[in-house]
Structure formats: C-alpha cells, structure tokens
Amino acid sequence: MTEELILAGCLTNNAAAQEALYARFSPRMLGVCYRFAKNREDAEDMLQESFIKIFSQIHQFRNEGVLEGWIRRIVVHTCINVLKKNKKFSDSIDITFASGIGTKEETIPSIIQAKEVVECIRLLPIGYRTVLNLYAIEGYSHREIGDMLDIEESTSRSQYTRAKSMLEAVLVKKKIINDPSVKKTFFGTSRVAK
Amino acid sequence: MNRKFYTDDFERMLKEMSDEFKMYPSKRIWNSIYNNIHPQRKWPSVGMSISLIFTLILVGHLNTSNPALDYQLTSKQLVLKNANDNPTNAIANSTKFLDKSLTDNQRGVLPTNDLGSTTLVNKDKAYNNQSVTRQQNIYSNKQVSSKINEKNVLDNEQAIAETKLSPSNNHQDLNKSNQPVINLTQNSVDLIADNNSTEIELEPILSLPTSQKSNIDDLMNTISENEISRRSIKNDISEVLQNEINSLNQKGLSQNKQELVSEKDKEWIENYAFYNRPATKKWAGKLTTMAYATPSVVYRSLSNNPNYFVNTNSNSSSSLISANQALREQLNQMPAMGLEIGTGLQYSILKNLRIKGGVQLNFTRYSTKAFANSHPFSTTITLHDFVSNTNYEVYESTPYSNKSGLEAIKLHNETFQFSLPIGADLKLAGNEKIQWNIGATIQPTFVIGGKNYLISSDYRNFVKEPSLLSRWNLNAGFETFITFKSNGLTWQIGPQFRRQLFSTNSKQYVMEEKLLNYGFKVGVSKLIK
C-alpha cells in the first residue's frame, strides 16, 4: 500500500489505512519516544498520544514534505510536552551541573550496536538527554530547543556540551567508539591534549 | 579542524544509530488508539450499564411478581370504621372507599348503616377463586405457548437436518408445506452470503411457520435498513481502499506492486478525500458519556403528616412533635444497603460548568425489627379522605407485630426505582489531570415496585400494603467528587446525598416517609469525539 493511498485513507478516517500508517511508522517512532522516556511504558504512552494527534491532525499535512518527517515532528513535540508536565524534568533541565552517571560496565546493556547507543543515551540525566536528542539526532537548533523547553539558548548549548562529553565517556568505556584523546601514530598511540 | 571533524562524525554516528533503532509496540497500544479515534465503535461502558440496568429491571420485576407477595392481599379482611364515630361520614367514606376498592379489584366491601357502624361482606373466597383461576389460565397459556415453541424448534431442527442430508428435497418440502415464500431483499441475501451460508442452509429457514417467518423477515429488513443507512458517501472510498488492501494481501504483493492503482485513480482518491472530509461537529470535545454506580446506606425520615394530623390538643405543633417522638420510640428500624446505577451524558456549557442528564436505576432498602406470628392478626391503618378531609381506619390482617411475637424477624422496606436525573456539575478547583467538583441533580422517579411495611394505627403491627406505594416521586441529589484522568478515561469518586422529596407511600396514608441515601459514587466518563 503506497504512502499516498494510506494518506488518502487516513483523510477519510479509514481504519485499515490508519492501521497501515501505524504499522509502518510505529516501530521507528517508538524508538524516538524511548529515547525521551523514562521507561518503555512511558514511551508507549507517548506513542499512543502521538498517534491520536497524528490521526486527528492528518488533514493538516501538506504534501510539501515527507510524511515521516511530519509524523516525527509531532512525536517529538508530544514527547516534550509529556516531559514538561513532569516536575522532575522541569527542575532538571535548568540545572547547570547534573549529577554524574554510573558508567559501570554492567550498567550498560549490550545487545546490538544501535540499541546499545540508544541505551547509552538513556543513561544520561533527563535534561542532558533531551537536549542531546533534540540537537544531535532530531536536528533542532539551540534556539528552537530553547523555545521548546522554555530555557535560554545558552543553557541549551551548555547542556548539550556536557551531555556530549558524558556520552562520549560512556561510549568509549563501552568500546563503541575510540577515545578521541588518544591519537594513533606509526609507533603506537599517544594521548593528545583537548 | 580535526576536532570539528570528530564532532560531526560523532553526531552523524549518533543520528544513524538512533534512526536504525526500532521497537515494536504492544498490540494494546493500537487498540487504545483505535478506540480513541473510533469511539462510536466501542461503547463498553454503555453496554455494561445497559446490561446492569436490565438485570435490575429483571430483579425488580421478579420481586414484584412473586406470588408470595400477594398473600396478604388475597387473605385480608377489611372493615371500614369512622374515625370520628360519625355515621354520615362513615357511610360517605365507606362508599368512596368501596368504589376505589372495587376498581382496584382487591377488596370486596358492602357498606350498610346499622347503628352508625359499617359491616363487611367478605368476598375473599370469590376473589381468591378468581385469582387462582386467572393464574391457572396464564400458566396454561404459557405452557401451551412454550410447548408450541418447543415443537417448532424441534420441527425446524429436524427440517434442517433432513435438508442437509437430502438437499434435493427442499423444493418438495416447500411445496408440501404450502407456506408463502419470503422475499428477501438484496441486502439481506448479501449478508447471509457473507456469512458463508449456502442456499441449502437458507431454504429450511424459509419453510418455517408463518409467525416465525415474519419475525425473521422483520429482522432481515431491520438488518438491511441498518446496512443501507451506514453506507454513506465516505464509505465508498473506504471500500475501494479495503478491496485494494485485501487484493494485495491475497496475492502476497509487497509495497513495490503499486501499479495496481493508476496515477489517475490515485489523483481521484486524493481529490475525493480532500473534498469529502468529515464535517467538524459542534459538540466535539464538549460531550462526554458516563456510567456510574453508587452503593449507599439508605434510611428514612418518618413522621405524621402535619396536614392530616388530628388536633386533639390546644397546642397542635407540640402535640405533633410529641406524636412523632412517640412514633420513633415505638419503632426499631435501621439503615440498610442500597444501590444506584446509571448512565448519561454531560455537556460543557462553560469552562467550569457542565450540565448532565441520564437514566438511573435505584434500589432502596431499610430494615425493621419485628416479630412473625403463626396466624394473622386483625389491625388497622389510618388513611385520609380528601373529600371530607377526615381520617379513617382500614382493617387489615397481618402476621407481623411490632413488640412481641413468635419469632424475631427483620422486615425490609424496599423499592426499585427508575429515575431521570437532570443537573449540573461545577468545577471548584483543579487542573487538567485532577479536579474537585460539586454537583446537584433533580430526579423525577418512577417506582417500578417494592415492599412496604406500614405501621398500624396503634403502632402494634406492621401491614404489608404494596398498593399504597406511590408510583411517582421526586428526588434531589447532591454530590462532591474528585475526577482524575487515566488512559483516556475520566474517573470520578466522591460522596453523594440523595433525598426523596415526597412520601414513599400514597397521600392517603397519614404517615410521611421520605428516603435518605448516603452513598459513595464511582463513575467513569469518556469524551465523545
């Protein structure tokens, strides 16, 4: 079933087309929600809320862009709205220095690499993680993130910098990436100053 | 530069890895989404409420039609006696009462006027005989009807079995039976065909007796009418899409087989969908459906009706108070559990104000400690005559006494009621998730049936007299409750007070009983989109 047919069906509130749309995009969108959420249950709740919005607002979709991009924007905004309702998140997003994260070997799950990376992202404190998700993965600018999260643009930048270095440390420890401070030379490895 | 390259590389890696990451949601999520976007297809709460309502009606009906309830009516002996020892009034009262009694077909009274008293002609025997004969007739009619039904069912099963064994005989059977052939509409035939029925299985249905055929015909017509009404213009496009999906599924085609629908068709579909969008509903987002249950503790307020109270003292108000006090001291009554269940609609007219209406079934009950005796006693209850504006006493027989007797028992004053609550809820505080509200309703009520044990004139006995139950009443309800949202549903819990505004019994009875319900309401509501 083509995307056009699915879209046309969804516009007429056709259940089969809606199910087809859900089947096509829900796995990836649940992955998006999972990166923002505290656990799988919360991610599923976010996904459910997102798709209800998608089906009720599908007539607003203009064929100017990609359907997946439009869906993804709704999902991300829904996730942010859900997080913003949580007081813990509101408090944590403005904290300049978040507490450190446990990076013991056993705390990092090891399944497949994509999942591993996502799980490593989820180890970050929620404020850092949200900014990192929005900036590095969803492609929003710091100004947009500031507007979305009701924080200063500079706060978003600093949160992202810290989030990134924390994540690097975790990924290096997990050996998913090489340590950027160690430079490979002809005679072996040498540590470079940052 | 090296660092910049590394940063870009790192972010790209993060994005790629994250985009590759997929998780498969549980089936429950789609079900919840589906129920949310197609609320008209799933009304479990309404279905449950309707089944509960039917259950209560059935229980009420069984309770009121129990032959044991008629025991006292058929065995009672009535004598009319003037409360003021006035012969003229006595005759007038007794004649009026006789008219009413004869109309009710419950009592036989023939008044005379010897020595200022009224004598009784007992027609119990005749009445009993009549009632027994009538019951027997009803029973025998039921029996006959059930026998006929059993026979029809057996005949039909036999016919179906025979038809399945020898399909070629179907037309012969039809001709033999000389029954008219039912003309099924095209839609009805389609429906049967969808259910994989064959002609062989269909024809024995056509050879049913005429009465059953007409039932089936009605049913089929109803189904076909519903089917036609459902087919709106929008569903045409749904069918096209559904057929497309089915054909793709059947042939096992993957997404790259898109050429089955031409570009022209796609364009038409998109245009059709664009110009046939569902119209926005004015009430969308404002109307909610709700169902609730309220277990409650039921009691009564009981007093002498001040309008009928016989003034024996110079100070009428103090004597009324003392009479009410004496009445309460004589009775040993206690609250019991009742239940209210209902369903209805709420409509937000303002941000903080909703109006509501619905249907509700109520079961009320309170208990009286009494004594049962081996044989009935003769006693009186006091009634009021509106024409002469005097009280008079009616003789009744009852096996229940108030103070002493053979065996201590509990009598239950019960009613089954159907009411139509109309009211409003006001939000006092809260946010999107949790709110505190108050509400009030006025509830026109119809009493389906029940049991009432009335206190006798001398407070010594209890008389069961369902004919004095008032059929119509009015109740007022007050409640305060907390609402909270969970999984697309709004739950509400809180205490509720319900008071009956008029007496449980008819105006004739000189005592005034008003029921009070102290309940705890649990309800669930869902927004209609």
Description:
The complex is a heterodimer of chains A (194) and B (529). Chain A has 194 residues and is mostly helical. Chain A is 64% helix and 4% strand. Chain A has two domains: 1-85, Rna Polymerase Sigma Factor, Chain: A (Orthogonal Bundle), CATH 1.10.1740.10; 87-179, Arc Repressor Mutant, subunit A (Orthogonal Bundle), CATH 1.10.10.10. Chain A has a two-stranded antiparallel sheet with strand order 1-2. In chain A, 37% of the residues are buried. The model of chain A is unreliable at 95-111 (pLDDT under 50). In chain B, strands 1, 2, 3, 4, 5, 6, 7, 8, 9, 10, 11, 12 and 13 form a 13-stranded antiparallel beta sheet that branches. Chain B has 529 residues and is an alpha+beta fold. The two termini of chain B are 56 Å apart. Chain B is elongated and about 100 Å long. In chain B, α6 packs antiparallel against α9 (199-206) and α8 (186-194) packs across α10 (210-230). The relative contact order of chain B is 0.11. Chains A and B meet through α1, α2, α3, α6 and α7 of A and α1, α2, α11 and α12 of B.
Give structural attributes.
heterodimer, A: 194 residues, mainly alpha, Rna Polymerase Sigma Factor, Chain: A, Arc Repressor Mutant, subunit A, 9 helices, B: 529 residues, alpha+beta, 13-stranded antiparallel sheet, 13 helices, disordered N terminus
SSE topology:
The complex is a heterodimer of chains A (194) and B (529).
Chain A: H1 3-11, H2 15-36, H3 40-56, H4 67-85, H5 87-93, H6 113-122, H7 126-137, H8 142-149, H9 153-173, E1 182-185, E2 188-191
Antiparallel strand pairs in A: 1-2
Helix pairs in contact in A: 1-2, 2-3, 2-4, 3-4, 7-9, 8-9
Chain B: H1 2-20, H2 27-37, H3 44-64, H4 71-75, E1 80-82, H5 87-104, H6 124-165, H7 170-177, H8 186-194, H9 199-206, H10 210-230, H11 233-251, H12 263-275, E2 287-304, H13 316-330, E3 333-348, E4 353-385, E5 390-401, E6 407-419, E7 422-430, E8 434-451, E9 453-455, E10 461-464, E11 472-486, E12 489-500, E13 511-527
Antiparallel strand pairs in B: 1-5, 2-3, 2-13, 3-4, 4-5, 4-6, 4-7, 5-10, 6-8, 7-8, 8-11, 9-10, 11-12, 12-13
